[in-house]
Design a protein that fits this description.
Strand content of chain A: 15-25%
Number of helices of chain A: 21
Largest sheet of chain A: 7 strands, mixed
Number of strands of chain B: 3
Largest interface: A-B, 40 and 48 residues
Helix content of chain B: 55-70%
Structural class of chain A: alpha+beta
Number of strands of chain A: 29
Strand content of chain B: under 5%
Number of helices of chain B: 14
Helix content of chain A: 25-40%
Oligomer: heterodimer
Distance between the termini of chain A: 124 Å
Distance between the termini of chain B: 23 Å
Number of domains of chain B: 1
Strand order of the largest sheet of chain B: 1-2-3
């Protein structure tokens, strides 16, 4: 048995040695897990998970009648986990919709899904352009993972540009886009995905997916049509009046709702880079200017409200000059002895100074303060100027008098409009607002504006007492006959102020203002127009009043509620006059739209896309129709094959459109297109020559 | 000539501890492979993980059937033909070098009618059988160099050399197992040390011809040993990546693991279903699960040596049992050592657990032989 013992002994040696290995392995496991564990687990986390942001859709912006002003164009990559529960139920519709959007046939999409490399993930389509609504639909399908970027589209170009502002990649830079950035933006969601060493992704079942909260949409008090009219007329008035800039704001005196707000020069938020910064300034809220004579409503209210004067009281304005300290106050013409009513009608500086003489400084300060010239209006737009009244103890001997004529006091055009809003509504200073409603992505109203007054500035009686005087301003005898509109009673006030520079007043530089409201019987609209450095005339009654008049005339036609206040002597104008339908066949939709609009016609149901051409129009070219009847177009994508008719377009527009069609353009001359090569209707080539005149 | 099978009164029951351990390992293997194979399925199998699982289940079944079959075949009959089996497998190994399917840098497989066949698996079984029978025959003069050691040694080196051409790590483990068998069979320690020295020299020579592999070993040991590795930057290479990922799997698992089928690292470890399945088990079942698995191998080690080998009816059975037990457990422990970054990266499967055809079959045959020996324990005593 010596042999067997030797074998056994050697066996124990072997067992001992081999058993050491698992012991070492066990220690190694503990070492790896306990000592390096945290670092290693960290690396696992980093290499194996990918956080994908589910972007929240930015809210859109609509006008008072829910026309979309600002919309999103989504460029989306669509990935899919076809194993997700619930996908198969909506599969068919999903493929059809995606095929339509991406141009890839359904069969190709299906075979791609069948032959996918990863069981739970396939990138199905890249860079698909769609609306936010489409995107929301795709997001709602289980297993569909849309990812992409949003670009903002300002549907009507420069319309209301200063109100809407501009949004960059994911932040508003100006206007409502900036002011309501947080509301519009919403909150991004997040999805945790697992990835492997070849970067293939898959969903982690039950992983903490946080859905995005989409941004809320804004519904404005602005009316697109009236806004566009105001912009057109403001531009025309500014060019005719040779102003360096012009600003206008219209509001409802009963609620404080902003109806329209315009600035000239303006810009197109879609191409903001190609405009100077000055064009982006919203003078209506960002500028403080000395208002000049339009301020006379303040001393007038103070004098009447305190009983210091009656409208018929006589005031001797003498030869139209008055020496006050080192200043000489002048009227436009010598007026002699006139009533207080006439002081307002004729905007007599001497008469106003005499009335102000009887007022205490405290009273003047108090009324100016009451009218809101010492505080921001609180309008929901960024950059509102902060105006401050000088405390009376800082006043010198002439401050009170100067203030009564609109100097030594500053106001934004919006503040001026609100002050006249108080006169229009019977004494209430309203808080202005521009956002009527906010709605979430599901369409529920999350917030609604409530009209709110800041304070009662003066009594109804005072307003009623003063009204005839301000109405007489817009008469043949007043300073603003050019604001007169046939059949409509309008009250208002002109203003002309010397323009202050850094070192005192600039010689020969003025600001001309007209602010008015109508109808006097039941005021619906206050409209203020300011022109900076008008070259044509320094008087608000000459350069600003005509803009007021033209805007009023055009707006009236769209306000049936005014009918009872309009007294027409002669035949009423035919508003709905017949027009000839232009030929839109073969034209890219945006160009067709432009042609229709130029004829005053609306068109419906066609997507604004340069590659989409009009095939059929329900009213053929040359047909006579009424303005109110929309022209219905049938259009097909990717059908633009012929050169559109560009005659009459501006260089920039023609250029932008041809570029969208990938046509290189050679231009000669300036102005609008008069000749083009290839001719309209010829085959669309790679280049085109335009002659402008 | 021995009887192929024995009469029922000549055999008893199989050793149930060894049997249960093997069945447990196979069961764990099915779960672990199912979890780990998803990436392979997604890459090559058209996404059908279940198809690969059924393939594995079929192979496990085949291995267990082989185990059952060999547990009734008299091991003495196998030993009698082992010389021819060994010669056959050495020829096959050499054939692989000529006809082998080139895969993973070294030719180790033979494609037989669509089945991937690894001759080294057959060679190691044949070698154990043949060397055990030689040791039993020459037991009386086993310490003699010329009469016992030299004739045995020539066969060992021929086989190991044939395996080592393409698969150094398998050669090393098989040589170690065979030498341990020789040690227990009372071969002179001096002779064994000589073989060990020779093996090391041979390995060094092999590595010197392959700078890549040499650099791999140097990178692991951290000591410069070879002259030909100067130009090879080994940092950041695939093996380093593998061992790091394996460590992450262990760390991720912690004490109790992330749970069955929830491995993350299976998507990062290359061949998680095979060379690194122990790391995946450590991740899903934690250190506790990993140690339990090692304990199953320890059961095979203790029970196999102290019960089956010690009580074997004859020296052949004893040596054969030792060889098989040492072979199986060495594979298991070395695989675990590699997966836990204790040993340099090699491509050794975990017996009964890893996904892979011939290795499962060879392990089933060896387990069957071991069980056959265990059935004759009490009869002889």
């Amino acid at each position: 048995m010596e042999l067997k013992d030797q074998i056994l002994a050697r066996m124990y040696v072997v067992i001992t040695l081999i058993s050491l290995l698992p012991v070492l392995v066990g220690l190694q496991l503990l070492r790896v897990s306990a000592i390096d564990g945290d670092d290693l687990r960290e690396i696992v986390q980093v290499q194996s998970t990918e956080l994908r942001t589910i972007p929240a859709l930015r809210g859109e912006i609509f006008d008072a009648t829910e026309r979309p002003l600002v919309v999103n164009i989504e460029r989306v990559d669509i990935a899919l986990d076809p194993m997700e529960k619930g996908f198969s139920d909506r599969e068919t519709e999903f493929y059809q919709r995606l095929s339509k959007k991406s141009g890839t046939p359904v069969s190709t999409l299906r075979s791609r899904v069948r032959n996918r490399a990863s069981k739970q993930y396939i990138m199905l389509a890249r860079d698909v352009t769609m609306t936010s609504e489409d995107l929301r639909w795709f997001s709602s399908v289980p297993g569909v993972l849309p990812e992409g970027s949003t670009t903002r589209r300002y549907n009507h170009g420069s319309a209301a540009a200063h109100v809407l502002g501009v949004a960059g990649i994911d932040a508003g830079q100006s206007g409502l886009e900036f002011e309501f950035n947080e509301v519009l933006r919403g909150t991004d969601g997040q999805r945790v995905m697992r990835k492997d060493r070849q970067n293939r992704l898959k969903l982690i079942p039950g992983s903490g997916e946080r859905p995005p909260v989409h941004g809320e949409s804004l519904y404005l008090t602005i009316d697109l049509v009236r806004q566009s009219i105001l912009e057109e007329e403001l531009e025309r008035g500014a060019i005719e009046g040779k102003a360096s800039w012009a600003a206008a704001v219209a509001l409802d005196p009963n609620t404080g709702e902003i109806i329209a707000m315009a600035n000239w020069p303006t810009y197109d938020p879609n191409r903001v880079g190609s405009y100077p910064m000055a064009a982006r300034r919203n003078h209506v809220v960002e500028d403080k200017i000395e208002p000049g004579s339009v301020i006379k409503v303040v001393p007038a209210v103070a004098a009447v409200e305190s009983g210091a004067i009656a409208m018929s009281d006589s005031i001797d304005t003498g030869d139209g000059t008055l020496q006050q300290g080192r200043f000489t106050i002048r009227d436009m013409h010598p007026n002699g002895t006139i009533s207080f009513s006439e002081v307002i009608m004729l905007s007599s500086n001497v008469g106003t100074a005499i009335v102000a003489e009887d007022m205490s400084e405290a009273m003047m300060y108090q009324y100016a303060r009451q009218f809101g010239f010492n505080q921001k209006t609180g309008i929901e737009l960024p950059g509102e100027v902060d105006t401050r009244l000088k405390q009376t103890k800082m006043w010198d001997a002439t401050t009170k008098s100067a203030m009564s004529r609109g100097y030594a006091i500053e106001a934004s055009p919006l503040q001026v409009a609100l002050a006249y809003g108080a006169l229009a509504n019977g004494g209430l200073l309203m808080k202005p607002y521009i956002v009527r409603e906010r709605r979430n992505a599901e369409g529920f109203v999350t917030w609604r504006a409530q009209p709110d007054s800041v304070r009662r500035v003066f009594s109804r009686e005072t307003a009623a007492t003063l009204m005839p005087a301000f109405e007489s301003v817009v008469s043949e005898d007043g300073t603003a006959p050019l604001a007169h509109v046939e059949g409509l009673r309008i009250a208002g006030k002109t203003g002309t102020a010397r323009k202050a520079g850094p070192k005192g007043y600039l010689p020969g530089k003025y600001r001309a203002t007209f602010v008015g409201f109508w109808p006097v019987e039941n005021p619906q609209v206050v409209l203020a127009i300011v022109m900076d450095e008008p070259g044509k005339s320094m008087y608000g009654g000459i350069v600003a009043a005509p803009v007021f008049q033209r805007v009023t005339e055009r707006w009236m036609a769209r306000m049936p509620q005014l009918a009872e206040y309009v007294q027409m002597d002669g035949e009423p104008d035919e508003v709905n006059e017949p027009v000839l339908v232009p030929d839109a066949a073969g034209q890219p939709v945006p160009i067709a739209r432009r042609r229709m609009l130029a004829s005053g016609l609306k068109m419906t149901n066609a997507k604004d896309d340069f590659h989409t051409a009009v095939l059929v129009q329900d009213l053929s070219a040359g047909t006579e129709t009424l303005l109110s009847v929309p022209v219905r177009l049938t259009a097909e994508p990717d059908t633009v094959q012929t050169m559109p008719d560009l005659e009459g377009l501006s260089a920039r527009e023609a250029m932008a459109w041809l570029k969208a069609l990938h046509v290189d353009v050679v231009m000669s001359g300036h102005g609008t297109v008069v000749r083009q090569s290839p001719e309209p209707g010829a085959a669309l080539g790679n280049s085109a020559r335009l002659t402008l005149n | 000539m021995q009887y192929l099978t024995l009469r029922s009164d000549q055999v008893g029951p199989v050793d149930k501890y060894v049997l249960l351990s093997i069945l447990a390992l196979s069961a764990i293997g099915v779960f672990a492979v199912y979890s780990a194979i998803g990436f392979l399925a997604a890459t090559k199998g058209g996404g059908d993980t279940e198809a690969l699982l059924f393939k594995h289940l079929f192979r496990v079944g085949l291995a267990l059937v082989a185990m059952g079959v060999f547990s009734v075949i008299n091991y003495r009959a196998l030993a009698a033909v082992s010389r021819f089996l060994l010669i056959g497998s050495i020829l096959l190994l050499l054939a692989v070098q000529v006809l082998g399917v080139v895969s993973g840098g070294a030719a180790r497989w033979l494609n037989v009618m669509g089945f991937i066949f690894q001759p080294s698996d057959l060679a190691k079984v044949s070698l154990l059988l043949f060397v055990a029978s030689l040791l039993a025959q020459k037991q009386l003069y086993v310490k003699s160099f010329s009469r016992a050691f030299a004739p045995i040694f020539i066969w060992i080196m021929a086989t190991i050399g044939a395996i080592g051409i393409s698969d150094l790590s398998t050669a090393a483990v098989v040589l170690t197992a065979v030498m341990i068998m020789c040690f227990i069979a009372r071969v002179s320690v001096g002779h064994i040390l000589m073989v060990g020295l020779l093996g090391l020299t041979l390995a060094y020579g092999m590595l010197s011809t392959s700078p890549q592999r040499a650099a791999r070993l140097e990178a692991f040991v951290g000591v410069k040993m070879f002259l030909n590795t100067d130009d090879i930057d080994y940092s950041n290479r695939a093996e380093l990546y593998q061992s790091e990922q394996a460590k992450m799997a262990i760390a991720q698992g912690g004490l109790l693991g992330v749970g069955p089928g929830k491995s993350v690292q299976r998507d990062f470890l290359p061949a998680p279903y095979n060379d690194f399945i122990y790391a995946i088990i450590a991740e899903e079942y934690g250190i506790v699960g990993a140690l339990f698995l090692l304990s199953l191998f320890l059961v095979i080690l203790f029970r196999g040596l102290l019960r089956v080998a010690r009580k074997a009816p004859d020296p052949l059975g004893l040596f054969l049992a030792v060889g098989i037990v040492v072979m199986l457990t060495m594979y298991g422990f070395v695989h675990a050592g590699v997966s836990s970054n204790l040993l340099p990266v090699t491509g050794l499967p975990l017996p009964f657990v890893s996904y892979g055809g011939t290795s499962l079959l060879a392990n089933g045959i060896m387990a069957g032989i071991l069980l056959n020996i265990s059935r004759q324990v009490d009869i002889a005593a």
